[in-house]
Specification:
Length: about 190
């Protein structure tokens, strides 16, 4: 398909528009949870269900459908385990370490060391079918506006670049602000 902008795709044929809408709907569904949240486990469960099908043609059809999901689950980024937040793992949930002493049970984990905000230019800006903003940044990260956030994020004017800053909020949330605009948008990282 090459490198086409979202708006160029939208102005194209309806098949392409429907494909983009389906992709954004999938992103919207993923917005409530991390991209890899048990993706490997889900793919294995799906493969196990296929193995239980008695009819060989149906079993093969099931495995053919489950294969791409398993490949993408294995290709998903790993959950960061280090305590230091870097630009690459900023916004990704950290693996929680279980309490090793009874007196530590129930205590919040210590704050990670490292960066607390990033600034980047938006390469692609899109909206989900439900009107939530999706930001594809020049550093490869993809962020999506939370369903609970009611901010109306306007597209950048033609020929202008949208520059954003994403910073850590309260309770592990993330706030996105657009340079030159007032207000914040609550976001979650998809990729």
């Amino acid at each position: 398909m090459g490198h086409m902008s979202y708006s160029a795709l939208i102005n194209g044929d309806s098949t392409m528009r429907n494909s983009i809408t389906a992709l954004l709907a999938a992103w919207a569904a993923l917005g409530a949870a991390p991209v890899w949240a048990d993706a490997v486990r889900d793919a294995l469960i799906e493969m196990t269900k296929c193995a239980d099908i008695a009819d060989s043609a149906e079993r093969l059809k099931c495995f053919d459908a489950a294969g791409p999901r398993a490949k993408s689950a294995l290709a998903a980024p790993e959950r960061p385990t280090e305590e230091t937040v870097t630009a690459e793992n900023f916004g990704l949930p950290r693996a929680e370490k279980p309490a090793t002493k009874a007196e530590d049970f129930g205590k919040p984990p210590p704050e990670p060391k490292g960066i607390t905000e990033i600034t980047s230019t938006v390469l692609e800006f899109a909206k989900t079918p439900f009107g939530k903003a999706v930001f594809i940044l020049d550093n490869g990260q993809v962020w999506r506006q939370l369903d609970a956030d009611s901010s109306n994020v306007l597209e950048p004017r033609a020929g202008t670049k949208m520059k954003v800053t994403i910073e850590v909020g309260v309770f592990g949330s993330y706030n996105l602000s657009v340079e030159g605009r007032n207000g914040i948008v609550k976001v979650t990282r998809l990729k």
